[in-house]
Amino acid sequence: MSVRTLAMMATPHENPEVRRSTVRTLLRLWPFVRPVRARLSGAVAVAVVASCTGLVIPLVLKWMVDGPVARRDPAGVWLGALWLLLLGITEALLFGLRRWLVARPLSRVEADMRAALYRRLQRLPVAFHDRWPSGQLLSRGTADLMLLRMFLAFPLTFLVVNSVTIAAGVVIMLVQDWALGLVVLGPAVPVLVTCAVVERRYALASRRAQDQVGDLTTLVEESVLGIRVVKGFGRHHSQARAFRELAIGLRGTELHKARLLASIWAVIMALPELAIGAALVLGVLRVADGDLSAGTLVAFLSTALALRWPVESIGFLLAMSQEAATATERYFEVMDEAPEDAKDFSDAGDTGGAPGRPAPRAAAERDGLRFEGVAFRHPDVPDGSAPLLDGVDLHIRRGESMALVGATGSGKTTLTALVPRLYEVTGGRITLDGVDITAMSRAELRARVAVAFEEPTLFSASVAENVLMGAGEDADRTDLDRALAVARADFAHQLPEGPDTRVGEQGLSLSGGQRQRLALARAVVGRPEFLVLDDPLSALDVHTEAAVEAALRQVLADTTALIVAHRPSTVLLADRVALLSGGRITAVGTHRELLRTNAEYARLMSGEPTPDEPAPHEPTPHEPLPHEPAPHASEDRR
Ligand SMILES: Nc1ncnc2c1ncn2[C@@H]1O[C@H](COP(=O)(O)OP(=O)(O)OP(=O)(O)O)[C@@H](O)[C@H]1O
Ligand SMILES: [Mg+2]
After folding, report:
1. Which protein residue has the closest C-alpha to ligand 1 atom 18?
2. Is residue 467 a contact partner of residue 458, using CB atoms and an 8 Å limit?
3. Cut 0.85: pTM above it
C-alpha cells in the first residue's frame, strides 16, 4: 500500500480498445460450468418447454374463436377456458422447476471460481502484487463473480429460451398467414443492427464501470487501513473528496450505460409495436373482406403479443452478457498471470537439484550464502534506467553473520528479498551451500531460509499462531517459548490470554516494537539454516535492542545470517559488514576496518546526512525517545 500503488491504479487494465469476442470470452467459463452442465442444460430445456407452452395458448384461442365462439356453444368455451388454465399452470410450474434446478449448482460454480482465484492470488509472485492494487483484486473476487453467477442463472438460459421461442413463434405466425408474418418480421433487420452497434459501445462502458468499481474499492480499503494517517493528518476531507470524484466518475459511466440501454430499448419496443399495429390494421381489413378467419387473426395477434417479452428482454439480456464477458475477462486477467512454478509446491521435502545438474552440494557442503554477479531491476521500472543491483558479489560463510549497510533506497530490502525468491534475479545467481536457489523447490528454499521484513506484518490470529507460522507443522510450545525468549517478546506471556491472545487486524493492537519482536520470533522459531533480517531492531529502544542482540548472538552462532542494519548497534551484532552502494558491494570487512578505511561507510554510520540523502535513520514514533542517546552512541560498546 504505497504511493506507487496509487500511481499504478490505472495501469493493469488500461486497454479499452481491445476488441474481443463476447462468445469466445464467455466460453472460457466452461471448465467451471462443466461439473454442473447436466443440471444447467436440464434447466434450459425445462425453460424452453415452459416458454413454448405459452405459444400453444394462441392456438387454443383460435380454436375457440373459430369453433365454440362462432357456433355460440358455451360448453366448448368452458372446455377451452379449462385448457387455457391448465397451460398457464404448467408454464408457471415449469419456470419454478427451472429456478430450483439452477440455484444450488450455480452458487457452487461461484464458490469454485472464487476459491480458484484466491489460490491463484496466493501463488502469484510478489512482483504481481506490487503491480496490482488490492481493490482491483477484491472487486474481481466479489462483484465480478456475482455478475458471472447471475449471467449463468439468467441471461445464458433466457438467450437460448427466447431465441427458441421467437423462432417457434415466427414459424407459427408464418404458418397462420405468411403475409401478416412478413409485416411483423419487418423490424427485425433494424433491431439487429441497433443491437450490434450498441452492444459494442456497451462492452466498453461496462469494462470502464467494473474497473472503476475496483479503483473505488482500492480507495476505500486504503483509507480504512490507513485510517490513522488519514485522521492524524486531518486528511478526511481530501480523502472524502477523492472518493467522491471516483464515485462521480462511476456514476457517469453507469448513466452512460443506462442511456445506451435506453436507446436499444426504445428501438426494440417501438418498432415491433408499430409492426404489430400495422398487422392489426391489415388483418382486420382482410377479415372484413372475408379472406381471413377471425380466429386466425386472434391467434396471429396473440402470438405476436406473446413474443413481445422475449424480443424486448433481448436488449438487457445482451447487456448482462456483455457485463459477464467483461467480468470473465477481468477474472482471467488474474488467472492468466503465471504463478510461481507449480512443481515448487508439490515436491516439498525433495532435496532439490534441477534434472541433469550434478549434485554440487557435496563439494560445497558448507559454502554458506553466496551472491555471484547478482543483477536486478524491478519489472515495472521504465526501460533504459540503470538496474537497481548490478553485479553484487558477496560471500557469507557458513555460520557467519553479515551486516548489510547502505544508504536508504540503495536496494538493501530488494537484495534480501532475492534470497527467498520473492523476486527473481535478472542476472547472476545466488547459491546456498553451493546450490543455485533456482535449482531447489521454493518449498525447500523457504524451509531453509527465514525472513523478518522491515514492516512486521501480523495476521488477525493469536500471537502463537503468528509466530509459529515460521516453523513447520511439528513445532510446539517449547519452540514458541524459545523463539519468544530470543526475540525478547516475553511480553506475550503478560497478555490477557498469554500467547493465545488474538492480535487485531494487522497486529495494530500492539506497539511497533512489540510487532517487530514477534516478527523476529517468527523468523527464528524454525531454527533456519539461513536467516535474512531486514533491519530487525529499528523500533526497539537501546536497552531492549541490547537484550535482543545478546539472545540473537546465540542463535546466530550456528546460523548463516544476512542482517540489514542502519545503526552501529545492529551492525555490531554481525561478524562482518558489507557496504551496498551504487548497485554493488563496494566494501566488506569488520565494522572497525570499514570505519577506518571507507569514507562512505564512516559517513553512513556517523549519522551525518549524505549529500543527496536525508539522515540515514529516523527514529520511529514508537521509540521511547527520552531514554535514547544519539543512534551512534552505542558504537563505543565495542
Ligand atoms: N516493487 C518495486 N517496483 C519498483 N521499484 C521499487 C520497488 N520496490 C522498491 N523499489 C525501488 O528500489 C529502490 C531500492 O528500494 P529498497 O527498498 O531495496 O531500498 P532499501 O535500501 O531497503 O532502503 P531503506 O534503507 O529505506 O529500507 C528504491 O529506489 C525503490 O523506489
Ligand atoms: Mg529497506
Report:
1. 411
2. no
3. no
Residue 492: which of 468, 514, 522 has the closest Cα? 514
Pairing of the two strands 401-405 and 389-396: unpaired
Cβ(120) to ligand 1 under 6 A?
no
> What is the distance in A from the centroid of ligand 2 to the CA of 456?
12
Decide if 583 contacts 388 (C-beta within 8 A).
Answer: yes
Q: What's the 452 CA to ligand 2 centre distance in angstroms?
A: 12
Are 554 and 403 contacting, i.e. CB atoms less than 8 angstroms apart? no
Query: Rounded distance, CA 202 to CA 190, Å?
Result: 18
Contacts of range 50-54, beta carbons closer than 8 Å, 24 or more positions apart: 50/90, 50/91, 50/94, 50/95, 50/98, 51/91, 51/161, 51/162, 51/164, 51/165, 51/310, 52/164, 52/165, 52/168, 53/87, 53/90, 53/91, 53/94, 54/87, 54/91, 54/165, 54/306
Residue count of the chain: 638
Q: Encode pLDDT of 376-397 as tens digits.
A: 998 888 877 888 999 899 999 9
**Cα 297 to Cα 63, 307, 310, distances in angstroms:** 12, 15, 21
Burial class (CB in 10 A: 0-12, 13-18, 19+), 130: middle
Instruction: Please determine, for residue 355, whether its predicted confidence score (pLDDT) is greater than 50.
Output: no
Substitution site in 130, 376, 378, 604 for ligand 1 pocket (most atoms within 8 Å of beta carbon): 378
| Dihedral angle sign, alpha carbons of residues 105, 106, 111, 117 | positive
Assigned C-alpha cell, 9: 491504479
pLDDT tens column, 227-277: 888 888 888 888 899 999 999 999 999 999 999 988 888 888 888 889 889
Would you list the DSSP string of 375-437? EE--TTSPTTSPPSEEEEEEEE-TT-EEEEE--TTSSHHHHHHHTTTSS--SEEEEEETTEEG
CA distance 635 to 315: 76
Nearest CA to ligand 1 atom 30: 409
Cα dihedral 544, 549, 555, 557, rounded to 10, equals -170
Q: Look at ligand 1, atom 14, and give the residue with the nearest C-alpha.
A: 411
State which of 413, 422, 580 you would mutate to test the pocket of ligand 1, scoring each by most atoms of that ligand within 8 A of its C-beta: 413
Whose CA is closest to 605, among 627, 636, 562, 582?
636
The DSSP bridge pattern shows strands 530-534 and 584-589 to be unpaired
Nine-digit cell string for 478: 517449547
